C-alpha cells in the first residue's frame, strides 16, 4: 500500500487515498477521531508548510503559531517523488486563508529546501501513523478479506483431494462467499497469517477434520 493523499477533515477525521498496486482507493473515517499520535504527526508538518509558502509575520519572522497543516499529496516514485502540503493560516481578523505549498521534490540530494531531510523523516512518521490508524480501524469486510480472499499468485495451487480446485475456491471467495482456503497458502504465508490473525476454534476444527481426510502418501 502506498499512501498518495491524506487529509484531516475538520482537523479531526482522516481521509486518505492510497494505491494497492492496481487502483487508487479512497477511504474516510467520519466517525472515528484521529488519535493524538496521528495529530502530532500532522502538527510536525506545520513548520514546513509555513516555510514552503513563506508565511511571515509583520517582523518577517515565520508565523509558525498560526499555521496548521491539514494534509498532503504526493506524486512520482523513488527519486522523482514530490509533495504538496496543504493547510490554513489563521488571520488576526479570525478568518483563515488556504495554503498550498509548491510541489517539492523529496530527493534530499536534489531539493532546494534546506530542511528537506527533516521533512522526509516527519512525512515517513506521518505515513506510519496513518497506516497504524487504518490497521486499527479495519471494517469487518476487510478483516474477512484477509482470510478468505486468495492472492492471485496462489490460486493455482492444488486444493485438498476430493474438494474444489484452487481456481474454483478463489472464484467463490472473490464472489463474496466465505470459504476456507487456508490450505492453498504456502507454509510461510500461512504462518504469517496465523500470527496476524489466529484461527478461531471453529476453523481449527474444520482444518483438523480436513487433515484427517487426506490420503496417506505412498512410501
When the domains are counted, the total is 2
> How many helices in DSSP terms?
7
- Overall helicity: 25-40%
What best-fitting shape do the alpha-carbon axes yield? globular
Unreliable stretches, pLDDT < 50, 5 or more residues?
143-161, 181-185, 199-203, 213-219
Radius of gyration: 24 Å
Structural class: alpha+beta
Report the span from N to C terminus.
Answer: 45 Å
Mean pLDDT: 76
Order of helices and strands: EEEHHEEEEHHHHH
Counted beta strands: 7
The percentage of residues in β strands lies in: 15-25%
Q: Describe the main β-sheet briefly.
A: 7 strands, antiparallel
Structure description:
The C terminus is likely disordered. Helix 1 runs antiparallel to helix 3. Strand 2 and strand 3 form a beta hairpin. With 219 residues, this protein is α+β, with helices and mostly antiparallel strands. It folds into two domains: 135 residues, no CATH class; 74 residues, no CATH class. Strands 1, 2, 3, 4, 5, 6 and 7 form a seven-stranded antiparallel β-sheet that branches. The protein has seven helices and seven strands.
